[in-house]
Amino acid sequence: KFQIKRSKIFQFQAAWMSHPDYESLVTSTWNNSRGDVVFKLVKIREQSIIFNKDVFGNIFKKKKRLEAHIKGVH
């Protein structure tokens, strides 16, 4: 039996819109990508994922660390 590797579903994060650099990332990625709309959207998805990792990091790990720190303070 073989397994088909599923890619993660892309989820837009509303927090990205609150960051002052995100709109320019989308605009520049769109304008600098050659191809049809689908290709441009794929490029924006790729850049958004990189942006998320660079700017926000893994928020679940951060939350866990902060909760552990708070418990340690009490």
How would you describe the overall organization of this protein?
The chain has about 70 residues and is mainly α. Helices cover about 70% and strands about 0% of the residues. It has helices at about 15-20, 20-30, 35-55, 60-74.
Question: What is the count of DSSP helices, taking H or I runs of 4+ residues?
Answer: 4
Give the amount of beta strand, in percent. Answer: under 5%
End-to-end Cα distance: 51 Å
| Overall outline | flat
- Whole-number mean pLDDT: 89
Please tally the β strands and state the result: 0
Helix content: 55-70%
Write down the secondary-structure element order: HHHH
Biggest sheet record: none
Rounded Rg: 17 Å
**Class by SSE composition:** mainly alpha
Catalogue the unreliable spans: none
Keywords:
single chain, 74 residues, mainly alpha, 0% strand
Question: Short summary of the structure?
Answer:
The chain is mainly alpha-helical and 74 residues long. It has helices spanning 15-18, 22-32, 37-56, 59-73.
Topology:
Layout: H1 15-18, H2 22-32, H3 37-56, H4 59-73
Helix pairs in contact: 2-3
